[in-house]
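can u pls check wat happens w/ adenosine-5'-diphosphate
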Amino acid sequence: MLHPKKERTLLILKPDAVKRGLAGEIVSRIESRGLKIIALRMFWANKDQIDRHYPQDEKWIKRLGEKTLKNYAEYNFDAKKELGSDDSLVVGGMVRSWLIDYLTSGPMVKMVIEGIHAINMVRKIAGPTMPAEADMGTIRGDFSVDDATAANRDKRSIRNLVHASETHEEAEHEISFWFAPEEIFEYKRAEDDVM
Ligand code: ADP
């Protein structure tokens, strides 16, 4: 079993984070938590890359739809009226295609982050998917306010600044998808002697 300090995750600063000049602030939050950035690069993705970055299976698309429908229910929004369907697979498919448009609309910054429980830790620093539900102190809570009911009315993806791998499987797939092994660096940070 890998040493817990060696857990790795992928973080992407989405086009809204780059365009709003929040890259430095976000990187700083990761670094000051004691997590180590071991790869970092600016890039502009194409549609095919984003399509392959996110899972393509029905289960994932349904989950995306369910999350959206839950948000609609919370705010008493009628999904059928707003989106023309309340089927989680259909809604998930729509959201996935808006997501591809969003993530190809400008340059992004990708990085690999290493540290204790890096996957959960970075998700926690990012905050939940819907910025309107994110706590203050999280990246999404401090710098954005979007949610599904607003985004979907305008037929666009939620602008929530960052993407962070959710599971070990996702992290493994996403790191090897976006980085070649020689672009990832092993080095010692000052805190390595302390914690
Ligand atoms: P997360 O990025 O928090 O892991 P998901 O994997 O559920 O969230 O969704 C992927 C991305 O799709 C989100 O970060 C967000 O940008 C977008 N998204 C999710 N649900 C919706 C929705 N209902 N409407 C528009 N965009 C959405």
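Residues 64, 67-68, 95, 98-99, 129, 148, 151-152, 157-158, 160, 163, 166 surround adenosine-5'-diphosphate (CB under 6 Å).
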